[in-house]
Amino acid sequence: MDYSYDTELEEMCPGFFKRTVQNNKRYTCAESQDCKIDKTQRKRCPFCRFQKCLNVGMRLEAVRADRMRGGRNKFGPMYKRDRALKQQKKALIRASGLKMETTPPLLSSPQTDYIFNTTLPVPTPKTSHPNVGTTLAPVDYEHSLYASSSLGLSVPFSAHTPLPAQYPYPPLPGRAIKSEYPDHYTSSEHYTSASSPESVPGYTYVDQTQVSISPTGTTPGLTVPALVLEFVRCEQDELQVQNKISTHLAHLQQEQSPRSTVANQEQNVRHAAKPERLTTFGLMCHMADQTLFSIVEWARGCIFFKELKVGDQMKLLHNCWSELLVLDYIARQLHHGKAESVLLITGQEVTPVEFTTLLAQAGVTLSGMIQRGQELVHRLQELQLDRRETACLKYLILFNPDVKLLENQSYVENVYEQVNAALLEYTLCVYPQYPDRFSQILMRLPELRALSAQSEDYLCYKHLSGEVPCNNLLIEMLHAKRTCI
DNA sequence: ATAGCCTTGAGC
DNA sequence: GCTCAAGGCTAT
């Protein structure tokens, strides 16, 4: 890392950033995640220090997965340019009292050209990517797991393709050697200089149906990257999932209720070790368990994921299941939009009073985690994260390029980069007034990771004390993750 | 765990 | 051949 950046970056210690990323460290903040980080107090809160590193523009991708030494990355100049732009902007603001809403420098004319001058060779979704919900065999939520291939991934999949070449963003020649971010999408060079023909990612889809709901209100024709549209198309029908899960849980509660019939009770004695009434925590476990099933089902139908071999699919899911669960919860609250109540996957609303009672009943750890989740919801609410961005985040989490021992590592890395590029493009197109929206969104991922890690630890602890219902996919995932890493 | 110094190597 | 951003090593 270069230690001679501007004063802010100097203070941030790139060595700390490198260690954090390389060792996959997870910090937590004892305060409210806004600790002041400066030269003298930087060691007090590593969580906030890491956040500030990201804020200042350090990139996770700059820490090389392959640990190759030497050479130069593709976004070196970007740091400098960004810094120059920021300083320019600051100077402008200081001099003329202008606000941050001034035309973002990233969206100068070359950028506009890159969005509007292009055509779209999108594979016709209806034929090449049939609707997930209708074509895949439905997952048997109760019985399909717990066998050898517990994720239900053993169904025949299409032949393995080495690279998603048919998809918009072409793989870069250097990719196989170094794990770097494609400069086309990150370097400011792309936006500020006249692009060479091959550096123009020419695949952007004009989504005519969305023009009227343009968040900017000024976009002449909202341009959404094809990949983002495909992600949204792969989303599950929320009502369907809701029905499935609430039905399942209703059955469970009926079976375990003290008011159940004698016959039912006898059945319970035969089939379960403890036919006692389900605790709130137990119920939540079942809910999370069922949500996880639906996440696996979603992944199975996902573009890119379904091209992978089952082994790699399992590894990716084992790595990120808890993050996807946390994101699922958070996204539901975000789109629910009612700050005062919590929406469950079953469609039930937890009122503020009930929520307070729940928090009081839960232990310190659990209530802390729930509150941490709510804080994350608030932060994303401030950003007004939209559904398309949420969809992109799911893919960024699923295709984690840090997962090791994959049969097709480069494919996963490539997909990750494509998703990154698509999200960047999307935010720049749709929210041009917030040029740093992309990094603002990505900045929330470490906290999401930290929270999911804490949830895993907590689940493990609860499992060891025998409080997690048996035959639970959560536990199976926990085991799989901890034995394979 | 941190941070300073050294080595490496792609790109100019 | 120089630059500079990456990783490695090591004293603290």
UniProtKB/TrEMBL annotation:
<keyword id="KW-0479">Metal-binding</keyword>
<dbReference type="GO" id="GO:0000978">
    <property type="term" value="F:RNA polymerase II cis-regulatory region sequence-specific DNA binding"/>
</dbReference>
<keyword id="KW-0238">DNA-binding</keyword>
<feature type="domain" description="NR LBD">
    <location>
        <begin position="223"/>
        <end position="481"/>
    </location>
</feature>
<dbReference type="InterPro" id="IPR013088">
    <property type="entry name" value="Znf_NHR/GATA"/>
</dbReference>
<comment type="similarity">
    <text>Belongs to the nuclear hormone receptor family. NR5 subfamily.</text>
</comment>
<dbReference type="GO" id="GO:0009888">
    <property type="term" value="P:tissue development"/>
</dbReference>
<dbReference type="GO" id="GO:0009755">
    <property type="term" value="P:hormone-mediated signaling pathway"/>
</dbReference>
<keyword id="KW-0539">Nucleus</keyword>
<keyword id="KW-0862">Zinc</keyword>
<feature type="binding site">
    <location>
        <begin position="363"/>
        <end position="366"/>
    </location>
    <ligand>
        <name>a phospholipid derivative</name>
    </ligand>
</feature>
<feature type="binding site">
    <location>
        <position position="462"/>
    </location>
    <ligand>
        <name>a phospholipid derivative</name>
    </ligand>
</feature>
<feature type="binding site">
    <location>
        <position position="458"/>
    </location>
    <ligand>
        <name>a phospholipid derivative</name>
    </ligand>
</feature>
<feature type="domain" description="Nuclear receptor">
    <location>
        <begin position="1"/>
        <end position="65"/>
    </location>
</feature>
<dbReference type="InterPro" id="IPR001628">
    <property type="entry name" value="Znf_hrmn_rcpt"/>
</dbReference>
<dbReference type="InterPro" id="IPR000536">
    <property type="entry name" value="Nucl_hrmn_rcpt_lig-bd"/>
</dbReference>
<dbReference type="InterPro" id="IPR016355">
    <property type="entry name" value="NR5-like"/>
</dbReference>
<dbReference type="Pfam" id="PF00104">
    <property type="entry name" value="Hormone_recep"/>
</dbReference>
<keyword id="KW-0675">Receptor</keyword>
<dbReference type="GO" id="GO:0008270">
    <property type="term" value="F:zinc ion binding"/>
</dbReference>
<keyword id="KW-0804">Transcription</keyword>
<dbReference type="GO" id="GO:0090575">
    <property type="term" value="C:RNA polymerase II transcription regulator complex"/>
</dbReference>
<dbReference type="InterPro" id="IPR035500">
    <property type="entry name" value="NHR-like_dom_sf"/>
</dbReference>
<dbReference type="GO" id="GO:0004879">
    <property type="term" value="F:nuclear receptor activity"/>
</dbReference>
<dbReference type="InterPro" id="IPR001723">
    <property type="entry name" value="Nuclear_hrmn_rcpt"/>
</dbReference>
<keyword id="KW-0863">Zinc-finger</keyword>
<dbReference type="Pfam" id="PF00105">
    <property type="entry name" value="zf-C4"/>
</dbReference>
<protein>
    <submittedName>
        <fullName>Nuclear receptor subfamily 5 group A member 2 FTF/LRH-1 OR2.0</fullName>
    </submittedName>
</protein>
<keyword id="KW-0805">Transcription regulation</keyword>
